[in-house]
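Sample intake sheet
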Amino acid sequence: MFPTEILLEALLNGLMTGAIYALIALGLTLVYGVLHIINFAHGALLTCAMFLVWGGFALVGLDPYVALLPVVPLMFALGYGVQRWVIGPASHGEDNNILLVTLGLSIILENALLAVFRSDTRTLQTDYAFDVVPVGPLLLSTPRLIGAAATLVVTGLLWLLLNRTDTGRAIRAVAHEKLGAQLVGIDVRHIYAVTFGIGTACLGVVACLLMPIFYVNPRSGGVFVLVAFTIVVLGGMGSVPGALLGGLLIGVVESYSALYFGDSLGQLGIFVIFILVLLFRPSGLFGARA
């Protein structure tokens, strides 16, 4: 049996890691909630964002947190353009086509990154990567604390966008009834692209939060998005609160699994939960039953 301090530290570290997972899942579930498709290019787009952050640091010494200012708008523009001028036209309005297009886009992006950066793993050397914040007897990672706080801020901003702006109302209208939204004059193609852009911009935030404590190679994004898919299923497909709470829960499960079974089996508990959810509550914690 572990001491109480170790168990409590594992809990808090799990919540902080889960917050970053939740932010990845938020982009994924937002796209699903509006476009009603799973974006298989989500992992490759996250990898692109991570390489942008690494490139800014390597070329001009841009701090990863300062890189939020250029990277997030760039990722929004990339997501908007990909949906508006690649995914939308290539899919011809068919959901099955969208799945294949995003899968193809994932393969293209990953191989393009491999061609440019090879398979080498790259990291950032920042002064604060190993800094800790003492909380009583506990030592909490400073970058993880910043990541958790940033996730709460982004989630709050996303809620305000969806509930207090005309764009948010248009997004919710399109998600609820596309034809009705068209009849009242909403440009559905534009809203689809904006939604995809917001989901991709979330990945820009994630990349800036991850790079001080993680590495990047052309396949890095897939590691996180596999967990994000589990969170989306756990929280309920298309549910923003479900993605946030599901991410926190998955982070805690991963932390305790690593504590009891070792780092190499840290994700064992995640996929056990994934299978149990599919077996007993396939709609997720907050998803609506079909």
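Comment: The chain has a mean pLDDT of 89. The chain has eleven helices and two strands.
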